[in-house]
Amino acid sequence: MVAPERIHEPGPGAPRQGRYVLYWMQQAQRAFDNAALDHAVVRANALRIPVVVVFGLTADYPEANLRHYAFLLEGLAETAGDLKERGIAFVPLLRQPPEAALSLAGEAALLVCDRGYLRHQRRWREQVAVEAPCPVTEVETEAVVPVETASDKAETAARTLRPKIRRLREQFLAARESVEPLVTDRPSGMEGDFRVEQAADVLDRLPLDRSVPPVSDLRGGYGEARRHLGQFIRDHLRGYADRSSDPVAEATSHLSPYLHFGQIGPIEVARAIQGAEADEGDREAYLEQFIVRRELTFNHAWFNADYDRYAGLPAWARETLRHHAADPRDPCYGPEQLEQAQTGDPYWNAAMTDMRTRGFMPNYMRMYWGKKVLEWMADPETAFATLLALNNKYFLDGRDPSSYANVAWCFGLHDRGWPERPVFGKVRYMNARGLRRKFAIDTYVRRVLDKADSEGA
């Protein structure tokens, strides 16, 4: 059974007469470890009717481009196959997501949806809750500990959320039985607008921003996510606590794109880490990043109305940056120079090239990359907007609560004040000397440039 804390009823009421239970799949694009789908199956089994899954694909998803759509469709194709094997109908529609859900709600006994944390995602679900002719239930799938269960306010730092998460973590990681549908007949008239298996044709039909190509060596899908998880546990979990920051070692799971698109569930990942053969310190170091730090970003998006705006930064950070806004910048770069990796810093240029080529950047380099943009641009507001635009354009895991919080961290979010200095004020500073002192950073630069050269980037 699904934990009751995950279940929210914005459009309450008992199920009515209907042909099926409708699951509007949007955030959790997977057939397994999906609490919303499980809840839909449980409710459908009780009513002795089938489950229908609908997905709305729109060509104008905020800031998405060809890179993002290609990865998404690769994952949806696998999900469609997995749902078919479970006897669950999948109906992909070329419509705005809430319109897709509402178009099939007329004959539904109940509509179940997953939860999204961003402004437009919440607005979509609010629209469906108001306009659907049937009861609506929202199920939180992407956090280990549901956001409002963990905290009822915006947390100031990981240190304030950590004890709340730790008190609840094992409760929500407890094993639960998988539920299979009792009725597997596909209702008549359930045809989609396109075939997700024909991703190339779908991409050709959509009027997308094609300025950013797909990543050549990273494919979407649940199977790929599981492969990366297994490879990480085998090759990198041992020693993770000591090596996770090293951009040369790149001892990371590479799961963030799959988590962003909901192609693998957080419960499955966390339980795999807990059961892995590794030192407890390494397992806990990963779970700190995966649960506490990641869900701190959900907290930020949920409780801070300005999560994606400069106004959403802590007051102390905005004040110290305002005080130093007129400080000279030397060098000073514009957005085009930054996007083309045309700075005088070879480490920063390599990080930007990595981002453009792979849609990825090691975590420590993300921090350095962001801090230097703050240092080099004419004012902090412009730096914030530029950093976020580049982040969302090139990263496969961009446009995510983690993206917004990580960019804001470069400007003081979830951090404390440090000794005051020019440009940064009391916001944390990073420099190239630190990279050279801690890591064999030139090895990272060579690897990135060799990769870019091989792809003609």
UniProtKB/TrEMBL annotation:
SUPFAM superfamilies: Cryptochrome/photolyase FAD-binding domain, Cryptochrome/photolyase, N-terminal domain
Record has Coiled coil as a keyword: no
Domain of life: Bacteria
Keyword Lyase among UniProt keywords: yes
Region forming the signal peptide: none
InterPro entries: Crypto/Photolyase_FAD-like_sf (IPR036134), Crypto/Photolyase_N_sf (IPR036155), DNA_photolyase_2_CS (IPR032673), DNA_photolyase_N (IPR006050), Photolyase_Class-2 (IPR052219), Rossmann-like_a/b/a_fold (IPR014729)
Essential cofactor(s): (6R)-5,10-methylene-5,6,7,8-tetrahydrofolate
Enzyme Commission (EC) number: 4.1.99.3
Protein name per its UniProtKB record: Deoxyribodipyrimidine photo-lyase
Keywords from the UniProt entry: Lyase
Classification via PROSITE patterns: DNA_PHOTOLYASES_2_2 (PS01084), PHR_CRY_ALPHA_BETA (PS51645)
The species this protein was found in: Thiohalorhabdus methylotrophus
Domain Photolyase/cryptochrome alpha/beta: 19-147
